[in-house]
Write a structure and sequence with these properties.
Blueprint (H helix, E strand, L loop, with lengths): L9 H11 L8 E4 H7 L2 E6 L10 H8 L10 E4 L3 H13 L3 E5 L5 H9 L3 E4 L4 H15 L2 E3 L5 H17 L5 E5 L4 H13 L4 E7 L4 H7 L21 H10 L2 E5 L1 H15 L5 H12 L8 E6 L6 H14 L3 E9 L4 H12 L2 E8 L9 E9 L3 H13 L3 E4 L4
Parallel strand pairs: 2-10, 3-4, 3-6, 4-5, 7-8, 7-10, 8-9
Antiparallel strand pairs: 1-2, 11-13, 11-14, 12-13
Amino acid sequence: MTDKKLPITPEDVIAAEKAIKGAINRTQMTKSITLSNITGAECWLKFEIFQFTAAYKERGALNKLLSLDPEKINGVVAMSAGNHAQGVSYHAARLGIPATIVMPLGTPFNKVKGTEELGARVVLAGATLEEATQAALDIAEEENLVFLHPFDDPLVMAGQGTVALEMLEDAPDLDTLIVPIGGGGLISGMATIAKHLNPNIRIIGVQTEAFPSMKEAMDGSKLGGSNITIAEGIAVNNPGNRTQSVIRELVDEILVVPESRIEAALVLLMEIEKVVVEGAGAISLAALMQYPEKFKGHKVGMVLTGGNIDSRLLASAIMRGMARDGRLSRLRIQMLDQPGALAEVTAAVAQVGANVIELRHQREFGAVSLKMTEMELVIEAKDKDHANKLITALEQKGFKVSAAKTV
C-alpha cells in the first residue's frame, strides 16, 4: 500500500461505519452457487439493493449529512441521476435538513417520483450530469445551501467504503472485488479499506463502453463513448479529482464492457438470484462474463449497487434477453398466397411445441410476387435449438424462412 497522502484513510471508513450504524441496513452477502458454476469463479454478491432507497448511495450521503449542523445551515442541494438523490432526500428528511435535488433532464420518471416522495424539492436542469452539477452549484450560491457532491467528497467516499468493510467481515478471504465506476466514489472508498485489510486483494473497476471516462483518465486512452447507456448510475463524463488520485494508487485494473453484456447480466441476475437490479448494479457480473479468464478460480466479491431501474427498460431488457437466448424469435416466412398456407405454418409450430406470440401478414409490402405473401411470425421456444427445429420444419414444408438477428 502506498504511503502517498490520499483524500481518505482506512480510519475514515471505519469512522463512517460507526457513524452510520443503525441508520443503514447491513445488507446480506451470499455465495451464488449457480453463478459460480456458470462463470468458474466463486461468486459472492453484496445485496445493496435492500437498502431503504434500494441503493448503496445512502451510506455516503448519510456520512456527509452527519457532519453538518442543521441549526447552522439553510439546507442542502445535491445533483444526482437518482440514487444519490434518494439517499440524500431520505436521510436529510430524517435529520430535519431541507433538501433540494437537481436531476438531469431525461432522468427516469420513477427516480424523479421516488425522490419527491421522500420530501425533497426536485429541479430538472441540464442535459448531462455536468450541466446538472453546474445548476446545483448555482442554486447553492443563490440560496446559501450546502452542496453535497455525489462522489468527489472524502466523507461520501468514506461512507461508500463501508460496503467493502462489511464484505470483508463476512468473507475475509475474498481475493478480488469487482466494482462499478462512474465518478469513482464507491471504488475509492472500497479500495481504501480493502487494501488496508488485505494488501494483496485485487480491486477491479468496471465501466460501460458508453461512459469510459475513468478508464480514459487513468491510461490516456480515447475510447469515445456513445453516452447512451442502460447504466444511468455510472453515466459520468468527468470523474472526480479526488477519486482519481485514490484509483490511480489503489485500483489494479479498469475493465470496459459493452451495453449488451450489461443487459444480459441484468436478466441473468433476475432469473438466477430472483432480484431486480439496475444497469450499474449488474455491470460487475457483466465484467465477469466478458472477461472470464481474469477471474476463473478466484473468490470474487460483487456489489449489486442499486435496484432502481425504470420498469419500461426492465421489460425491454427481459424481452431482448429472451431474443438473445433464442427463447423469442422473429421469423420472416415467404409463401404462396393461397388457402391453407397459414394453417400449414401454425401446424408446424404446434408440431415442434413452440408458441405463437405475434403474427402479421404482409401482402402489400415485401412480397416478391403478387401470388406470394410474406408473414412475420414471433414465436416463443425453449432455446435456439428449439427455434431452429421450427425453421427446419417450415423449410421442409417448402417455405422460405429467415430469422431476424438479435443484439
